C-alpha cells in the first residue's frame, strides 16, 4: 500500500467510524464520573473506568487492568506489545470530569450527549471523554486498514482523578516506571488553537490551590446594632482578595514576577474575546498581550467563596468567610516558591488583624515540552496531512502536573500534547461541547502518526 492510498484508507475509515464514536461518547457522558464522593457516588467512576477498559480490550489491547493509585482512584492501564524493532507509544487520557458547576446554566442535559448546531454537548464531551473516543477511533481505523495488529507498541493510561488534582497517578508512576515505559508519550488532554487548526501545545502553566478563611467575631452580629465598628469577616476577605490584582487586572502577588512575555504565536484580541465570551464593552484584563497573560504570566482566580447567598441573607455582620483560590504559574516558576509567596502576601495584607487560616490543597509544576525529535516530526507531518494545513504551536493556560512526573521518570522519551479541547469547547464551564470534526481529524492524525512513526 502506498503512502497516499494508506492515507486515503485511514481517512475513509475514520470518517466511517464517526457514528460509532458518537454512540460511544453518548455512553461515556452518561457516567457522572466526578471523583468526589461528596458530590457523586464513587460507583459512577468505577462504571466509567470499566467501560474504558472494556472498550480498549475490544480493540486488541491486553493486560487490561484497573490499578488503584494512592488517592484511591483507579487508572485504566492496557498494553499492546511492540513488534520487533518498533517503538512503544503511551496514550494518555482521563475519564473523570469536572462537576457541572451550575446545572441551571446548562442549555442541554448535563449528562446526556446532545447534538446541537453541529456540536455535541455534555459534561466531559471534550475534557476528556472526547479524547478517549478520539483514541478509540484512531485505533479502530488502524485495525480496519492494517488488520488486527498495530505497527507500534501501545500503552493506554486513562486516569480517574485528574480533575481533582489529588495526585493519584503522579504518585503511582515513579513506583511503576517499567509498567508505563514508552519511547513517546501522547498526552491527549489539550486542544487546537481553533477548530480546524492543528496545534501542538508546548507549555503548560503550573498551579497552586489553597483555601483561605477569615474570622473576626465569635458569631455574626446585627448589622444595625454593631455594623461600623464590628470587624466584618466578609469585608476583610473582599479587601484581602482585592490585593491580588491591580487596577489593570494584573496578578500582583509580592515576590512573583508578572512582566514576562510570550515569544511564540500570538492570540489575537478579537479571537480571544469571541472564544472567551467577553461581553461587549468589557475590557480584556492585564497590561500584556493575550498570549502574555495566558501563557507567560501568573494568574490568580477566585474559584469559590463561602459567604451568605443573596437570597436568605440576613442583616448581619459576618463572623467568618472563606475563599478557594487558584494561582496559575508559567514555566520557570517553582510551585513551592509560588505557594510561599502567595501565603506570605495574604498574611501581610489581611486587614484589622483578622484571624487568617490558610489551607494548601495542591501544587503542580509548569511544563515545557522539548522541541525536535522523530516523534515530533512524525506527528507534525500527520497533523498537516489530516488537516490539510501545517500545524502550529501554542502555550496552554491549564495545568497537567503529570507531565513533569513523566519527564522526570522517562527523561529520554518524547512528550507531545494534543487533543480535541479547542477554546469554544468551554471545558470546566456550563455547556461544554466538542466539535465532532476535531474527533475525526485528530483520530486520523493519531492513526497516521502511529503508522508512520513505526
Task: Give me some keywords for this one.
Alpha-Beta Plaits; 6-stranded mixed β-sheet; 2 domains; 4-stranded antiparallel β-sheet; elongated; alpha+beta; 454 residues; 13 helices; 34% helix; 22% strand; Aminopeptidase
Structure description:
This protein is an alpha+beta fold and 454 residues long. It folds into two domains: 3-204 and 366-453, Aminopeptidase; 206-260 and 297-364, 2-Layer Sandwich (Alpha-Beta Plaits). It is 34% helix and 22% strand. It is built from 13 helices and 18 strands. It has helices at 3-16, 18-30, 42-57, 129-146, 168-175, 223-226, 233-242, 269-276, 290-296, 335-349, 374-387, 402-409, 436-453, and strands at residues 62-68, 74-80, 88-94, 114-116, 119-121, 153-159, 184-188, 199-204, 206-215, 221-222, 299-306, 316-317, 320-329, 355-364, 367-368, 392-396, 414-418, 433-434. It has a six-stranded mixed beta sheet, sandwiched between helices. A four-stranded antiparallel beta sheet has the order 11-13-9-14. Helix 2 (18-30) packs antiparallel against helix 4, helix 5 runs parallel beside helix 12 (402-409) and helix 11 crosses helix 13. The longest helix is centred in the first third of the chain and has 18 residues, at 129-146. The two termini are 15 Å apart.
Amino acid at each position: 500500500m502506498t503512502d497516499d492510498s494508506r492515507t486515503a484508507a485511514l481517512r475513509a475509515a475514520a470518517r466511517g467510524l464517526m457514528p460509532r464514536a458518537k454512540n460511544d461518547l453518548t455512553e461515556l457522558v452518561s457516567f457522572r464520573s466526578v471523583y468526589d464522593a461528596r458530590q457523586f457516588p464513587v460507583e459512577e467512576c468505577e462504571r466509567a473506568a470499566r467501560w474504558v477498559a472494556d472498550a480498549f480490550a475490544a480493540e486488541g489491547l491486553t493486560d487490561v487492568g484497573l490499578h488503584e493509585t494512592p488517592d484511591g482512584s483507579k487508572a485504566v492501564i492496557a498494553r499492546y506489545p511492540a513488534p520487533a524493532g518498533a517503538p512503544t507509544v503511551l496514550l494518555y487520557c482521563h475519564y473523570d470530569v469536572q462537576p457541572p458547576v451550575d446545572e441551571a446554566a446548562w442549555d442541554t442535559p448535563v449528562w446526556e450527549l446532545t447534538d446541537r448546531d453541529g456540536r455535541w454537548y455534555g459534561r466531559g464531551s471534550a475534557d476528556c471523554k472526547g479524547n478517549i473516543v478520539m483514541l478509540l477511533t484512531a485505533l479502530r481505523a488502524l485495525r480496519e486498514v492494517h488488520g488486527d495488529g498495530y505497527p507500534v507498541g501501545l500503552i493506554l493510561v486513562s486516569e480517574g482523578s485528574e480533575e481533582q488534582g489529588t495526585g493519584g497517578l503522579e504518585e503511582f508512576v515513579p513506583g511503576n516506571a517499567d509498567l508505563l515505559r514508552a519511547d513517546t508519550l501522547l498526552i491527549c488532554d489539550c486542544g487546537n488553537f481553533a477548530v480546524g487548526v492543528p496545534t501542538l501545545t508546548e507549555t503548560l502553566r503550573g498551579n497552586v490551590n489553597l483555601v483561605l478563611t477569615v474570622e473576626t467575631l465569635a458569631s455574626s452580629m446585627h448589622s444595625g446594632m454593631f455594623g461600623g465598628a464590628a470587624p466584618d469577616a466578609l469585608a476583610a476577605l473582599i479587601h484581602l482578595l482585592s490585593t491580588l490584582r491591580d487596577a489593570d487586572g494584573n496578578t500582583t502577588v509580592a515576590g512573583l514576577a508578572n512582566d514576562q512575555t510570550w515569544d511564540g504565536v500570538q492570540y489575537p484580541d478579537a479571537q480571544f474575546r469571541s472564544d472567551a465570551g467577553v461581553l461587549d464593552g468589557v475590557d480584556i484584563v492585564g497590561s500584556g498581550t493575550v498570549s502574555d497573560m495566558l501563557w507567560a504570566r501568573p494568574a490568580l482566580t477566585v474559584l469559590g467563596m463561602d459567604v451568605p447567598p443573596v437570597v436568605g441573607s440576613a442583616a448581619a455582620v459576618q463572623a467568618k468567610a472563606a475563599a478557594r483560590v487558584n494561582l496559575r504559574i508559567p514555566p520557570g516558576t517553582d510551585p513551592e516558591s509560588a505557594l510561599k509567596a502567595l501565603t506570605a502576601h495574604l498574611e501581610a495584607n489581611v486587614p484589622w488583624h483578622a484571624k487568617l487560616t490558610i489551607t494548601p490543597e495542591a501544587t503542580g509544576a509548569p511544563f515545557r515540552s522539548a522541541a525536535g525529535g522523530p516523534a515530533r516530526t512524525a506527528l507534525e507531518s500527520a497533523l498537516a496531512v489530516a488537516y490539510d494545513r501545517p500545524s502550529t504551536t501554542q502555550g496552554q493556560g491549564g495545568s497537567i502536573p503529570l507531565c513533569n512526573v513523566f519527564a522526570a521518570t522517562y527523561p529520554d522519551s518524547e512528550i507531545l500534547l494534543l487533543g480535541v479541547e479547542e477554546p469554544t469547547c468551554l471545558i470546566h464551564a456550563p455547556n461544554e461541547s466538542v466539535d465532532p470534526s476535531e474527533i475525526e481529524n485528530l483520530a486520523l492524525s493519531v492513526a497516521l502518526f502511529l503508522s508512520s512513526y513505526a
